[in-house]
Amino acid sequence: VNSDRRGWRIALVSDALLNAPRDRARPDVVRVLETCGYGVLQLPPPGNYGPLLAVIADQVAEYAHHGYALVAIGVRGESRDGLHWRSLAPLLRRRTVTLPPRHLVRAEAPAAEEQRLATFLNGYDLPLEEQRHWRV
Amino acid sequence: VIKDQSDSEQGGQARAPRKVALLANCLLNQNAKVCEGAHYPGPVTPVLAALRKRGYLLQQLPCPELAFAGVRRWWAVYEQYDTPAYRSHCRRLAQAVAPLIEGYVRAGDEVVLIGLDGSPSTGVRFTSSKPDWGGRPNRPEDDWNVVPGRGIWIEELEAELARRGLPRVPATGWGLDMGRFDEAGAVGDLETFLDRPTGAADASDGDSAP
After folding, report:
1. How many helices and strands, by DSSP H and E, does chain A display?
2. First vs last C-alpha separation in chain B
3. How far is A105 from A82, CA to CA, in rounded Å?
4. How far is CA B68 from the centre of its chain?
5. pTM for the complete prediction?
6. Which residues of A, range 64-103, sit inside 8 Å of B by Cβ?
7. Which residues of B touch A68 (CB under 8 A)?
8. How many helices (H) and strands (E) does chain B have?
9. Least packed by Cβ within 10 Å: which of A82, B24, B48, B131?
10. What is the mean pLDDT of each run of 10 residues along chain A (136 residues)?
């Protein structure tokens, strides 16, 4: 019996969300990701981290080509959403990866934002046929 | 590239040091594990709980095995990964993430490393060993040894940080790859490490082995 418990779903997450101060005024994105069973691939903070983004793109490509569902979770309302999309998107395309759907979280209204994120995460996965092909 | 330190000082006043945990990739993402190795759907929840309760910032490290041998790789031991090509790959990953780590250390933050004990790559206190593994992958269950020592990736990461003149980061390992995983014991072990007095010895140098 295979006791492996992996969830087969992974979120690229902005550093600002993963390391947000914990208070009731902000959505707890980490808790929602845990509850929904998503693994986390952390993106670097703002700055020039090209080599690290290339390493992350290699990992995303490996998952994307082997039956894992991928999403990207950033911050809405900031000058940057924390996803490094201008750098990351070309790296993913070069690795023949379909760009993952993006969901942006607002800093305010934490309960509503957490619910909106959970709805997005729970509602996303690969088509059943692909799941059956890979997830044995 | 060194992380922008402009937030480390405001109005000439140094900010308080932050606590930063460098995490083995699979502690945030169990999908990185070899087949049959994932104990959780996503993050390893007890590790995150222990770190968040204590106010640690999280810094995920890349998974060297995934990017090298793929998500459908075979199980392997230290000796199989101890090749020039794999070490070179690990050095590339270390050079990619080291600027972030260097930023934290040079800003005076309290940085710790949490690896994965028993792993051929990410082991901190223990790694896996079986010098005769190779060829057709038909080994019986539990046919490897857990031995004291770093995994290949941790060795190369620490070497890169040393090349940058950084002090050794206190480190411990979550005992997920020790053969028979004991979650309660692993939690106690991790909390003892996190609550140790500042400046105390690295868990891997002491006798706090599980």
Report:
1. 6, 4
2. 38
3. 11
4. 17
5. 0.92
6. 66, 68
7. 31, 71
8. 7, 8
9. B131
10. 88 94 83 97 95 97 98 85 94 98 92 96 96 92
